[in-house]
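During the no-cost extension, the postdoctoral fellow (Dr. R.K.) reprocessed legacy sequence entries with the updated structure-token encoder. One reprocessed record is reproduced below for audit purposes.
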Amino acid sequence: MSAMELASQLRAHLGSQTARMLTAARLAGLGVLLWAVANQRQSDVGGGRVAVPLLMAGAVVGWTGWMACRRFGAPEAATWGCLALLAATGGALAGFAPVAVAFVAVASLGAGIAFEPLPASAVGAIGVGAVALSVLAVGTPVPAEVVAEAALSAAAGLMAGTSRRQYLERAHQAELLLAERVRADAERDRAAALAERNRVGRELHDVLAHSLGALSVQLDAADAVLEQGEDPTKARRLVQQARRLAVQGLEETREAVRALRDEPVALAEQLEPLASRAGAELCVTGHPRALDPDAGLALYRAAQEAVTNAGKHAPGAPVSIHLDFGARSTTLVVSNGASPTGRPPTDLSSTGGGFGLQGMRERVALLGGQVMAAPSNDGWTVEVAVPA
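Re-encoded structure tokens follow.
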């Protein structure tokens, strides 16, 4: 192990610089109190030459033990025992040197920080009781004043310790709330990313599935005609139709990008070319207005899906698109009649994978709208309403 690694581990063991400074300050405070007790000790008191050093040693053990328990996270019983020892020995020293009541104050302060009021008060009571017994046994002058001073010191220590404990608890709660907020923000970001992925998935289906599916069918048909070599004019017409489908898909991609950029949607204008391509009748009622990008895109995709499905499953059937701008909502109704007799569904009826209606429902549900799709008058009707 290198010297730098050893030094790093030692620093981690000793704690932060602030913790080391507090440890040094506590040890300095212990030294100052011991010096004060030694200088204030009454030399004429019997047994003091033996009792005082022993009590001072006990106070040192209690003080340093309390510090060690704080540093290493010892069990509460060990911490309470060290503080009780400090309070008892410090209180007993007060009979020989009244300044030792400071030990009782320190023990009460530590107990107030570490424990609930009842066990903390027990430490203070031990200290005050030790002072009372000591001053009576030793015959300290003005014993009542010494006991009163010890009681006041213990009470002040307990109050300060309890206040510090409450502050630490509030700080801990704030840390927990902050951590919970960070987790909530992360979960919200994850949900937003998931929603965006779902949105992109819907766009991929709506923009590409129809256009590429129709384009594939047109190109397959053109390839079959060219392979037979019978009708070059028909093959050329099929290629031209495929090109128009590609241009249409490019335009729809631009519309999707515009919606993703949150640009307002002029839905009535967008539906006109869609209705024209599908040979559908478009009717707009109410007062047309620019819609929110999400609402406008949802209604446009619903119209596109409904018109495309009508062309897939009921080719040649009459299709109508009704757009109503209400006061609180905008409603789109796409209806188609029955397919002319003898015309089967087109080859595109198997394209799309069934995700169109599902994507429509998901998109509208996110806006708080409703989707209704059901048979009607030998055909099919799709009705979509969104708050807009």
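Residues 346-355 have pLDDT under 50 and may be disordered. The longest helix spans residues 143-228. The remaining legacy entries will be reprocessed before the final report is submitted.
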